[in-house]
Each structure stands twice: as C-alpha cells, then as structure tokens.
Structures
1.
Amino acid sequence: MNILRLMTGAILAGALMSSCTSNCNGGKCEKENAKCCEKKCENGANSTIETIKTRRSCRVFNADSMPSKEVLSQIAEAGTWAPTGMGTQNPIILVVTKKEMRDRIMKMNAKVMGKEDMDPFYGAPCMMIVLSKKEGTTVYDGTCVMTTLMLAAKSLGVESCWIHRAKEEFESEEGKAILKDLGIEGEYEGIGHVALGYAKSEIPAPAPRKADYIHWIE
Ligand SMILES: Cc1cc2nc3c(=O)[nH]c(=O)nc-3n(C[C@H](O)[C@H](O)[C@H](O)COP(=O)(O)O)c2cc1C
C-alpha cells in the first residue's frame, strides 16, 4: 500500500514537471534572449507563476505516504536559496521524518495552541521546521525560506501547510533541549513549520483575491 502511494506521488510529481518545462537553453540565457528562459507549461502559462498560484494549504494529509528522501532533499535545498537580509543566511531548516520526533513536535504545538487532543499537522508524515538566528532580519529571512519551501514542494507535487507556533515551541525548555541534542548552538527563533506530504482528499478552492490588493503608482 505504501509503495503504491509513493508511486502515485512520484507519478504526480513527474506529471507536474513534464507539463511545465523550461525553454531555456541549458540555463544559458543572455539578456537579449531572456524570453527564452521563461519556463512554460503546456498550456502556455509561466510555470513558476502557475506553481505560485496553485499552491494551497493542505489540511488532510495521507499519514502513510512519505515523500522520498530525494524529493525532500530537493525541497530543503531549494529553501537554502531564499533571499536573506544582507545575505546573512540566518535561517536553518530541520527536516523531520522520524515519527517519534514528528509526534513530539506535534504534541508541543498542540499544547501551545491549547488543543492537546488535535493534530495541528493534519496527519502530515513529515515537516520542515525553519528557525532563524536572532540577528538582523531574523523573521523576514525565515519567512522567505518558509515560502520557498512551500513553493518548491508544490513544484514537485508535494502538498504543504504553514503551521505556526514554532516561536513558542523553541522558547520552551523542551524546544531548547531538542536544538541542544542536535548540536545547534546560538540564539534561534522558531519561524514556522512546513507540514509536508500528499493530500488525502481534494484541497478546497482558494478565496478570490481582494480587489484592492494592488495599488499602482505610475
Ligand atoms: C504566518 C502564517 C501562519 C499560519 N499558520 C497556520 C496554522 O497554524 N495552521 C494552519 O492550518 N494554517 C496556517 N497558515 C496557513 C493559512 O491559514 C493559509 O495560508 C491561508 O488560509 C490561505 O490559504 P492558502 O495557503 O491555501 O492560500 C498560516 C499561514 C501563515 C502565512
């Protein structure tokens, strides 16, 4: 059953990748032919913008369907390319696939929320936790990483949801002990968790964008 789910995930990721490909010639793009580097989907849409627009928060994960280590590595690595203020690379990413730790974090999160009988991670089998060094643009840097992780996941057919309360978790003695056990030293602020996995059921359609979102100053 697990293998079947993994295969379904891989096929979905493959389908997404193949329907949106880069027209860029080996990544070598000069100013004058920048248009050739636009990554297009089969329907002609820009594939990066399509990923941004189709990413949705998943709240019903298939607990038995873990994305492969290869896919998770690609997502995490993409996160490291997020912009950071002054290029400080303040954030760090914890990739949690160990069920024991996933459940421990889940319980800590539920406690912060005051709802200890629920799973705030919606059954997601794994998560990435973003923490950011308490220096300079800490929260902004971490937020950029969070967004990059969610978009990278979507581009690989993996669903995600930002789960909050990492700040409180890692301010607690238990949170500090987890970092210490990992050998992570220094002052870090918890920014958020990206719950990751494959959807168990259809994800609801997004709310329409508000009319006054964009203000042009021309
Ligand atoms: C800072 C932040 C915190 C969030 N915290 C949670 C959370 O704890 N639990 C949750 O289910 N969704 C959380 N979300 C997801 C939002 O609820 C979601 O992005 C929003 O409803 C819009 O839906 P969409 O992501 O499908 O576009 C959070 C999002 C952000 C940006």
2.
Amino acid sequence: MNTSQISNVLLVSFDAFRLDRTFHFTESDCPHVSELLNDSTYFSKHISTGSGTSTSFPGILASSLPLEYGYRGLSEDHCPIAERLSRNNVYTIGITAQTSCSSLFNYDTGFDRFFDSVGSNSSNTKSFIKEKVANIVRDTPVESPTKAIYDLIKNHDNPPYIQADEVTDRTIDLLFPKIKQSNQTFAWIHYMEPHAPYYPPTKFIKQYHNGNHDLSSINKLINRWNRERGPVGSPKNMDIFTPDERSSIIDFYDAQAAFAVEEFERLISKLKESGELKRTAIIITSDHGEEHFEHNDFGHRPKMIEELIHVPLWIRLPENPDLDTLCSFDNITSHLDLSPTITELFGCEPSDQWQGNSLVSALETNDPTRNYAVSELSHKSGLGGDVRPEELIISVRGKTWKYVLNKQENREYLYQVGEGIDHENVIDKYPGKAKELKHFCEQRISNINKVEADSIDIDSGVEDRLRRLGYK
Ligand SMILES: [Zn+2]
C-alpha cells in the first residue's frame, strides 16, 4: 500500500468504552464521526493487552505486554511510539485526561508536546485549579467552615479527570498550529469518558436517563460501589444496588459516552474545516471495556472477560482512490499491533523490540496477521507494581476460543467466544483445545523476566483522584 500521502496520524482512545455501547449516536447528532466510521476498516476481533488502563497502554503506546519491562507504566526499557517517531522527524503531541496513563507513569516519553492533569503545563486548566483549591482546603481543620466548601467542591463539582470538552479544546490548541508547519504530525488523544464517575452535561442525561437520578446521586452510587464492593465476582456484589440503580448507572455511562463522542465530533469537524482531514489517518479505539454487572461486578476489575478485553478498533485512511480498504477485518488483532501500524503509515521502521504486527496489510486483505492475542495482569487492585506470580491472570484469545489461567482463583477456563459475553467454562469438554492454548500461555509466563516495578512518587491529591476513579 502506498501511504505517502499520509501526513498526520491521530490515535484517539476512549477510556472504558465497551464494544457493544460504542457510538450510541444518530447520524444527525454526529455526521462527521458517522462518515468517518463509514469510511473506516472495522477490526471486529480486536483484543486489549489487559483489562484496565495500566495494562492496556504499554500495549497501545509501546507494543509491549504489560508485564514485559516491570509492571508500572513505561520504563527506560520500553520503546514508546512517540520516541520512535520523533527520531524519524515526526512531530508528536500527546493529550491525556487520565492520571493512570499520564506523565506520572512516564507516558509522556518521547512526545514533543504533552498535556495531562499532573504535568506543570496543566496549571491553568479549570480542573487542576479546582483540585488545587480543594486540596488546600482539605488540609485545613475539620471544624473550619472552609471544610464545607471542600466537601462541596470535592463531591459535586470536581471530576477527578480532565473532561472531554477540555480535551478537545487542548487538542485544537496544540495540534492545529503544528499540523500546518510540520510535514508529519502524530497526535494521541485520550478521552476519559465514558469512565466513571460521571459528569455529562444535562442534555445527555435527559437523552439517556428517564429516572430521578442526577450527577450528585449517581456519583454517590459510584462511591458506594468503590467502598462496598467485595471480592472479584462475588455474588454478594449484586446486593449493593437495586436493579433500578444498576440500570441508572448504565444510563449515565451512555450519557457520558455520548458527551465524549460529541466532543470527538467537534474535533473531526475542525479537522475537516481546516482541510487537514484528507491528509490524516485516524485510529479509534478504547483502552479496555467496562463490566455492567454481567459477572457480579461493575467497572474493570482484574478478570479477562470479553466485556473488558474485546474492544473496538477502527482505522480510517485519508481519502485517496489508490487506497482501497476493507470495510471489516475479521481476524484477531491486538493493541500490540497499533504502534507498528502507525510507524508503517508514516513510512518509518518499527522497533525490533515491539511485539506486534502492522495492520496496514489488514486494511486491504482479510488474511490473519496473528492467530491469538495475549492479555495479562498481576494485581488484585490498584495500578500494578511488582509482578506477583500468585496474582497472575493470563488470557490467550483466538478467533473462536479463549483460554484463561487465573492464579488468583487457581483455576483454568476455556470459552467458546462469540457475541461478546463469556458463558460456560468448557475446559473439561475440550481438553485438547485447552492444551493447545495453554501452551502459548506457559510460553508467555516463561518470558516474563523483570518482576520489580520502578518506584514513583504519588502525592495526596493524585492519590485521592485515583481513589475516586476506583483504584483502591
Ligand atoms: Zn482505562
């Protein structure tokens, strides 16, 4: 494929956007996004490298399985996509709304410009200021009247992340001056929505929720879940909410998703207006999915269910009669494949240490580029750390089968995978198939070398934000 007319590549990721809830919008609400998806190749079996943000982004941004170079963000041993591209004179911009894929965990490595909620460049953002104020007030004595202000700010008006409208504003500010000057520009844009807690504008709440909940009451339910949830998959977790409360939470998830898509629409419409859309390749994905109580949990806890690891991926190349692409690619792909795809789109060589394969050929032919995709984690809660063998959960996902080794439960699973939900464990019924996939799993375990994570400093403000995002 001749990719010489591609000047820019945008990698757009949405946090916790599950496959079957993606892009709930009508063509009239978001005509540009709608057209973009119609012109894209859809990868129908795309698998994340993990079930949460911290296990997905080593795959997306450095083509590495999460346990490869220490289990905490990017280390000096990684070869991040931005570093690779900068070395090849591609101008690189990163904008992320999520703390767990921010500069705190070295995800800014290699970017020429980077914006997040923890770096010094974010000091003039509204959420950062709100958080600073809240933290100052929080440190004052309990009886102080300012404490009440803290509670007000903290609980009702202060999302623990940068919201979608600001992400789009920042992207427009950083990207558009550069896109005109540089021959080649890469931008990674990470929207926090639809991740909880939920702060969508009222118009989306009205559109998606018929009940009586508002932002305050729905986020109280989210806080209650974070406080009261029991062990992963425990049936007692289903007693925390009534069926009505569960369905209200999903309404707000959809409202939050619609907000992010509308902000993405604003970005795409701006690109079109500037004339740059025709020179830009766009990759759209989510880091991982979200469980909506199908397996006795909400959110993305440590488990390798389809709702978490099977994620959406679209790739849309610039309009060009020489670039004739498939509507849909129906073989297994992995987040590991994104960085090699991006380097090939820019005409650069991939890094030798990357574990994925470019998907550029998959845009034209339906031939498999891999037979299975590995997803892995090694933690019970939080954001990773040292690799603990007793906490390993590894999944090997083929086109129609999935094998999972769960050391936390000391159990193995085999699933026939189809329409998104895991049903019955059929490991006793198909021992030959289990053995075949288990072989790849054992091979992977034998390759995990570095078990100690690099240490990082997390201040109390960041810790508080992570707690509100559900990291205990
Ligand atoms: Zn995430």
3.
Amino acid sequence: MDRIGDNLSVRLYHDHPYQNQFTAKVVRSWTEGSKHFAVLSQTLFYPSAGGQPHDTGTLGNVRVTEVYEESKASGDVVHVLTGPLIAGDKVEGQIDWARRYRLMQRHTAQHILSQAFLRAGGWETVAVNLTSPVCTIDFSSEPQEEVARQAEALAAWAVYAASPIKQFWVDQGELHNFPLRRPPKVSGKIRLVEIEGWDLAACGGTHLKNSAEAGPIKLLKHERYKGGTRVYFVAGWEALEDYSQKHLVLASLAEKFSAPALEIEKPIANQAGEIFRLKGENMALRDELAERIMRELLALSPGLTIAAEVPGVVLEAVGKRLSEWPGVLAFLVSPGEDKARLVLTKHPGRSEQLDALWKEILEPLGARGGGKDIKLGVLPAGAIHAALEEFRKQLPRSIRPTP
Ligand SMILES: [Zn+2]
C-alpha cells in the first residue's frame, strides 16, 4: 500500500491497477448544492492527473461521476457522487473497468510512443492529452514525416516484444541510478514505471502489466503546434474500433463506386470533376432560361407591370434581370409544395413604393420575407392566384420609362 504525503486516502490503484472492486470506510463526506462528495480510507478510483482522466463507477448505490485530488500531490482523493454517503460507514466500491482498461491502454501507449519518438528523432515529450480516444502527445521538435514513420514502427516492435511493465517507488536521492526518459515533476518518494528494455519514466498513473496489451498503436496524423509537433494516436481497443469504423466507411464507398477499396480516390476525383463541369453547364443553362423568360414576360407586358409565375430554379435570376430593366415593376411567384417563393422588385424609375405594395397586397395574404430593392419571401401556396390577381387589378396602367 502507498500513501502520498500526509493524506488519508490509500491509493490502491497504484499497486492494484487490475483490481476493480474494493471496500473502504467513508472518512469525510459533504454536500454542495446538488453534488455530494466523499473521501475514503482507501480507493481504487484514479483522480484526473498527468493527462489521464479519472475513473467512474459506484460507491454502494451511488454513482461516482468525477474524481480529483483535493490539492496537488499531498491532497486527498475526492469522489464526486450522485447521492450522499455517511462518514464512518463502510462502502463497497466498483470502478467502471471497461473505461479504466481503455485509459490504461491509452496511457501505456503514450509511454511507448514517447520513448519511440525519443529513439527515432530525439524528440522530447512536452505534454499529453488522453481524454478522448484520439490522444495527443506534444513534442518540442519540428514536424518530420520520417521521424513519425519510424516512431510508429518502433512502437509496434515495443508492443510485439510483449515486455513486462513494473511500477515501483524510489527516493529522490537514488534517482541518479535510474536513466529516466524525463526528470520527475514531484519530489520526495518518486514512482517509476518501467517497460522492460524499452522505457523508464516517473509517473503516477495506471499502466498495463505488459506492453502487448497496449497494441495496436496507430498514429493518425501530426501537425505543427506551438513551435513543435502535435502527434495524434489511437491505441488498444480504440485503435481496433477506429479501424473497424473506417473499414466500414471505405467498404461502403467501394461498393457505391464499384471500385476496389484502396483505389477509391480515382472514381471520387472523377465524380468531383464531373460535378464541377455540370455545375458550370447548369449555370449557363439557368442564365439562358432566365434571359428567355425575362424577354417573354416583357413581350407579354407592354405596360411593364409584370405579375407572373416563373420556374423556381430561375426565380431570383429573372427578378434580378427585371429589376434592371427601365420601367419595370415585377411580382414573380414560384409554387412549391406548401409554400410559394416570391420576388417583388422594380426599376428605380418606377414611382411605386415596394414597402407599400408589400403591406397592402402581400401581407394580408400571409406573405413573409424582406429586402429593399429586391424583396424575397414566401407565400402560402393557396394564396398565389389571389396575389397575382391583386397585382394585376391594382397596377393596371402602364408607366413608360422616361428615356
Ligand atoms: Zn504513466
């Protein structure tokens, strides 16, 4: 068993990383708002520290949602609970093993990778984040593809070597006997973690008992970060899940494109090219259609007051063109399933006020929308004919543009 500093909690997770049940006495308990807290005589619950997230689980019949150290290094382990526990009571604890095992895989893989990058390129680990399945390690060195590729291969060999992992305590004064990957951040009694023949580091986290359990370890990408490099990786079950998910996506794409999975980029690139070409063609056709419809409407409306239905694909384009035609006032509508889209616009030479027309004719029919020189909006589908009628009735006279 080990105690750190003067705190009361015995941290069982250090010596028993593979145990998931324990019994303890509630030493202290308190409540703040809807949250309940407890400190135990001993605990298997790992508190968030060193980049490794906390455990979850149950104490008696209340859930443990969060675990933290009350203050750095010498602090008690505080369990945040969904219900109260009573000081002095005995309580059965159970940690969520599936979660913890994944955290140990992430964490052990990080040790393996930190050493792999050190060997491959002399890269020093600056920070780690193990809070989600895609973990990161930040290094102080500039990105280098070759180093990443080599480190990944070295990490795979470290996994295949199936090296035993030991965790033990030494006094600060004995540290010179141990070739640590990086100096410890704490003083006094130091906990060391050794992956036999591979890595030796000071660490207070939970680790696997054998490097083989951390595999597979897969680098996903690396990028420039704060003057160094951030490396993204997945490990263990989560690497397998990542592979499975990506395989499913790739297999489904391969089927859709009737191509071998590893040659899928070519048909996708071909399709993207085709879409680009069709978009250009489509735009030209729309322009042509809008132009033709505009000329038809002008020919049919010698008074230049236009109220008409037009196809939805060119509604705005026809409206825009008409707004630039001297003397025009246009109300265009395009029927949809339950709503019709509309455009109300005019040439600046017309004296009518669009706001007033909107208010008098369209608003009472349930139109909604806005805009200044070109008003866009929607109208209930049933009101299309009434709206067209109103415009034809109220604006019957032609107002010729002044040349
Ligand atoms: Zn560690």
4.
Amino acid sequence: MCTFFYDGLVIPVEPGPLPSPGPKPWPFEPRPEPLPKPILPKPILPKPKSPFIRLRPRRPAPMFPDRFPGKSTPIYDVRVGHKGKPRACVTVTLSADWDGHDLRDENVGAIEHFAAWRQQHGVPMTHFVCPSYFSNGQNVAQNANQIRRGMIPGDEVAIHVHGWRSLLQQAGVLQVASFWSGSPVNNYQTPAYANAWADIGHDNPITHYTRQEITQIINRSRALLQGAGFNVSSSFRSGAWVAHRELLRGVRNAGCILDASGVPPAMTEPLNGLFTAMALNPHPLALWANNITPNSQPHVLNPIGVNLRELPCHYSLADYNTQQGIEGRMQWALGQIQHAQLDQTVYLHFGFHPETAVTLRLYQPNQPAGTVLANIPMNHLAKLEGALQTWRASGAIWGQLQFVTVEDAVQIFVP
Ligand SMILES: [Zn+2]
C-alpha cells in the first residue's frame, strides 16, 4: 500500500466511453435566437495565494560561511539562474538528523561517501546534531571527528535535541517520560530505548519541558556542540519533530531564529509504522497537524505567537518514504515553477538519519554499553542519493535546482 503518496500521487483513470452523440439537428429548423448575455455583477474572488516566493537579494559572498575552523572556505556558486540572472527554480535543502544514538563506521562511511559526491556537485547540507554525543561520557574529539567525516565546507551545523538523559542532566533538567513505551522513566532505570553508550532518552519527547527548561537544554546543547569544535547556527529541529508553543518560545528564548521541526504527522507514519507508538501521546505533533502540509512553504510563526521562522520538514525524512516518493515530490515542485515568474522559487526539503543511513543497530537496555540486541538493514540514505543522481543525470532538472542550507533558505524565503 502506498498510502504515503497521498499528496503527490497521480491515480491513473481509465477513460470511460464517450457520451453518445445526440440526434443531429434538423437542417432546416431555424436556429433559435441567442439569448442576450445577462450582465452579472463581477464576482469578488479572494486573491489566490501564490505558492511562490520572490527571490530576494542575497547576502554578499561567502554564501556558506566556513563551519570548519582551520579549513579553507570554498564559495559555492549558488545558481540564481543562468549566469547569475534570476529565473524560476526549486530551492532544495537537505538535512541529516544525528540523533545521538551511535556513530558506527558502517553508517558514517556511507555519509562520508555522500559528502564526497556533494562536494563534487556543490550540494551543501544542514546537519542537525544532537549534542548527547558530547554529554554521554565518550571521547568528545573522537565523536566530533566521526560526525565531521560526513560534512563538507559550507555545510551548516544546527541543534537537534532528543531528551537523552546525559544531556538533560547537564542542562539541569529531569527526564520525565518516554513516548515509545508510554511509561514514565523518572527513575532513569527503565529505558525503553538504549544506545551504544547506555544512555537513554532518545524516545523522551521534549514537549514535556517548560519554556525555561527548553531554553536551558538548548543553551547547554549549543555549548556542547561548540565545545566539540562546531560553529553552530541559529537553526533548530526538535527530536521526532515534537513541538508546542511553549517549546518554540523556549527555542526562541535560547537565541534560535528558525525552526525546522514542522512536519505533516502523516508523513512520519508510512513505511515502518514506528510512530504508531505516538498514538500513546498524539499531542507532540498536534501543532503541526494543523499548520503543515507536504506543500508548506517557509513562513513566519508569528500568527501562533512565536517569533520564529518555520522551514518545514514537509516531506519528513527518507526513513519514511521511498525513492519514487522523493522523486515524485520533485516532479510536483518542477510543475509548480513551470509557469512561474523568472525570479520565483518554491521550497523543497529532504533528509535522512545518519543512524539509519545503512543499518540501525538496537542495543540491549540495562546491559553493558554496546550490547547488541539486533542489526536491522535500513539503507535510507541510498534512496536520497538515488533521487539526487536521477536529477543530476538530467540536465533539464538539475539546471532548475538550487541547493542551499536551511539557514540560507530562510534568507531567501522569510528574511
Ligand atoms: Zn532526531
């Protein structure tokens, strides 16, 4: 069942029989006088909302600031049309959600390979990194180096927060619950989901915390990432996309200016059903259910009382979709710009999880760190790579795409 194609799916419809032609008019019958056209008042229609956003003047070069101190800063040519002239294009952002689960060579190697391809073709990416890699007691430099293997100069490093115990402890916040199990884990002793480092809390939705606690967690997260040597942007994505107003206010109070957590909840369901566990607590995505569709464009969250820019994760991540689904979304976007003004663009986002890029390793809770429960083949990154290669192979498609990081996309769409 491909229910996840609900948005982009074109259902082929067999043409029915043609309506039988009626009796031919008698040739000598006089034609009736045409009735005078009634003069109707001109209907006042609401102005259709354009899906397009005009390209705005860009910041001066370098478009992509160097996020790797000590390395050179190549400046990518972000194509604003042929030879610098504006033209309609699809603005694509790619992201990786480093969840704090583990950093195995198998996955990191695949991401490194992808990074080489991205560098070759000038495709930057935003890395949403959970700082628990640097709070879990492991070697900070070693873990940072593993993550850096998947990055190229010009990539963005942003904050991604799952409620891992070690991170919350460092932020001075207590861990409260688990939405995978639906059970409280106040005592830190009943992990529903462990990682390689015997930390717990991947499944702890941070919607449980107050605005002040969220601010503390994000401030601590930023400090941990900076301590690991990363230049951190002011973009944010919450673990499992959970959000409510208080959380977003906390995000804003912690100095972030854009959120990239908005997701249509249905897009997280299709392939593996993992998120059926969220039925236990449907609340964390309720905000998005009313605000984000697979076609949503970057917008300001002011109407809900939060002064943040929202860059939707509107096609979820590769984990929950197929390569055909990803390519279908691009067809939608290309269709959108087909008749657009020359200086217009439409936004599209794709992403994946490093921890499921090739395989997901499950660890045994309450066992020595790293005790393996199961290895599950995933190969989600391959779907995104496959789609990118399809587009690269087509000059017609590739020429209509511009790849930017999330923080640069906000400058284009909602500065
Ligand atoms: Zn995550």
